[in-house]
Design goal:
The complex is a heterodimer of chains A (113) and B (109). Chain A is mainly β. Chain A contains no helices and 11 strands. Chain B has no helices and 11 strands. The chains are: A mainly beta (113), B mainly beta (109). The interface between A and B is medium-sized, with 23 and 23 residues.
């Protein structure tokens, strides 16, 4: 059983560009949460998708948007990239919007130059 | 703004030493407290989910306690091994996880 997978592993983008990160949840999980971990910080909650809708959102600007597909996989999109968006982006999946059983992927390292 | 704090920030111990870290969180509106273990280049791995005041959970040499009234949790590692080297994160659960900055543990042989 594959766990949570994320792609790509690493990504380098230029300021002002747009980026899309992808996440496939663990088998049997229907909820995907996204986190940003900047250097020296703990992971910060961006948003959560359940039943193809954004269920909760953290304190992130509208430049951060997402999508969940019928197969429960998810994308995180960031527009108009800033240098400060450089971070590790983690995806976590869980069954039924539960926080008690969140399984994390290995993350996508985004560098904005 | 909810604040979750972990201490120490980093810890270097010798193999065989026992160690412990602290996680402080808001004492009101408690729902759950999570501990994760995160090895470099791997995914964070769930250790414990703690929900009741006075809870004590154990997994092998690792155990955790919870005090919701004063807002802290301790994670203990007995007889540290080099494979315990990782960052240990706690997360306060408010129906979304609010993480601390982690304690980075290095165990030297």
């Amino acid at each position: 059983d594959a766990g949570v997978t994320q792609s790509p592993t690493h990504l380098i983008k230029t300021r002002g560009q747009q980026v899309t990160l992808r996440c496939s949840p663990k088998s049997g999980h229907d909820t995907v949460s996204w986190y940003q971990q900047a250097l020296g910080q703990g992971p910060q909650f961006i948003f959560q998708y359940y039943e193809e809708e954004e269920r909760q959102r953290g304190n992130f600007p509208d430049r951060f948007s997402g999508h969940q597909f019928p197969n429960y996989s998810s994308e995180l999109n960031v527009n108009a990239l800033l240098l400060g968006d450089s971070a590790l982006y983690l995806c976590a999946s869980s069954p039924g919007a539960s926080t008690h059983e969140q399984y994390f992927g290995p993350g996508t390292r985004l560098t904005v130059t | 703004i909810l604040n979750v704090e972990q201490s120490p920030q980093s810890l270097h111990v010798q193999e065989g030493d026992s160690t412990n870290f602290t996680c402080s969180f808001p004492s009101s509106n408690f729902y759950a407290l999570h501990w994760y273990r995160w090895e470099t280049a791997k995914s964070p791995e769930a250790l414990f989910v703690m929900t009741l005041n006075g809870d004590e959970k154990k997994k092998g040499r690792i155990s955790a306690t919870l005090n919701t009234k004063e807002g802290y949790s301790y994670l203990y590692i007995k007889g540290s091994q080099p494979e315990d080297s990782a960052t240990y994160l706690c997360a306060f659960d408010t129906d979304k996880l609010i993480f601390g900055t982690g304690t980075r543990l290095q165990v030297f042989p």
